Each structure stands twice: as C-alpha cells, then as structure tokens.
Amino acid sequence: MKITEENFILQLKNQNEKALEYVIDHYGGLIQSIVKKHLYNLQSYQEECVNDILLGIWNNIYSFNESKSTFKNWVGAISKYKTIDFRRKYLKDLKNQNIDYVEISIEDSTLKAITKEELNKDLEELLNCLKDEDKKLFLKLYVKEQEVNEISKETGLKKDVIYNRISRGKKKLKRMFHIIESRR
C-alpha cells in the first residue's frame, strides 16, 4: 500500500513502519530545525532527541486529534517539549557529574548558564498565562520537585487546594497551547 498525505495517520495508527518513513520524509526537516534551534549547543544530544521525537509520534499517534490541530503543529509541539526535556536532562547530567573527576572549564559553565537561562525563559513564557500563585505552585512542584506535603506546609494551603490549582493550571495551559498552535 502506498502511503500518502490522506492515509499516513491511519497507517501510523495501524503501526505501519512505512507511515513513519513518510513522517520522516515529510516532517523530518521541521523536527530537525526545532531540535537544532533548541539544542544548537548540545549536538551530542540532537540525534537522540530526534529519535525520541519519532518514538513519541509513533507511541502517541492516538492522542493526535485532527479537529484540534494540524499534524504539523502536533509534531512541532512534541518536538519542542522533547527538546526542553533534553535540555533538562543535560543540566541534570552536569549536576550529577562528580566534581573531583570533571574538569570544569569556562566554556562549560557558560554553556550551562546559557542553557539554564533559555530553559527559564521558555518556562516563564509557558507559565505566563497563569496567576502568580499558581505559577509559584507549578515551579515548586515541577521545577524544584518539592512534595505536595512540603508545599502545603510552606504555603499554608491544603493539599486538595494545591491539587485543584495544579489541575486547573494544566487545563489552562492545554487550552492556551491549542490556541497558540491553531494560530500558526
């Protein structure tokens, strides 16, 4: 069966590898450009990131909804979030390296600072649609990786309130993301 623009999504859902080849041929440039834009200074991570993006498309094709977004926008969103994950992974890898055995150069610390700054900018842009209190909760829970109990003690909010705010915040982020994607 020949894979075309009309049937490649259905064929992806049927786990047809030729449909994935179609995606690589027709959307590979988009994926590569997003990866290079966000991981330009981390070339050793780029190929692995592209592979993870393609695996993400393959494994999550059932979550694609044609009525909400185009396939191109959906692939772009997966690509952007995977690159953000890889930048986080890079920062974690740097943090986990043993200082005694790693010679830190000015370039490495500058690269780390630039990457961290870019991540913070992306995160700030993403969370701008939330109220300040909700933004702080997201940062504590997902960036600082604090436990809900700890956040509850720190803020004086009940755990149920925290879970509700996080849930509403996630819904708002999803809505905002769909609005932004539909404008592209």
SSE string, helix = H, strand = E? HHHHHHHH
**Cα distance spanning the termini:** 32 Å
* Helix/strand/pairing category: mainly alpha
Shape: globular
Main beta-sheet annotation: none
Q: Which value, in Å, is the CA radius of gyration?
A: 19 Å
Structure annotation, total helices: 8
User: Helix content range of the residues, please?
Assistant: over 70%
Rounded mean pLDDT is: 81
Question: How would you summarize the topology of this molecule?
Answer:
Layout: H1 8-13, H2 17-38, H3 43-60, H4 71-96, H5 106-127, H6 132-143, H7 148-155, H8 159-183
Report what the structure shows.
The chain is mostly helical and 184 residues long. It has eight helices and no strands.
Salient structural properties:
184 residues, mainly alpha, 8 helices, 76% helix, 0% strand
Short description:
The protein is an all-alpha fold and 184 residues long. It has helices spanning 8-13, 17-38, 43-60, 71-96, 106-127, 132-143, 148-155, 159-183.
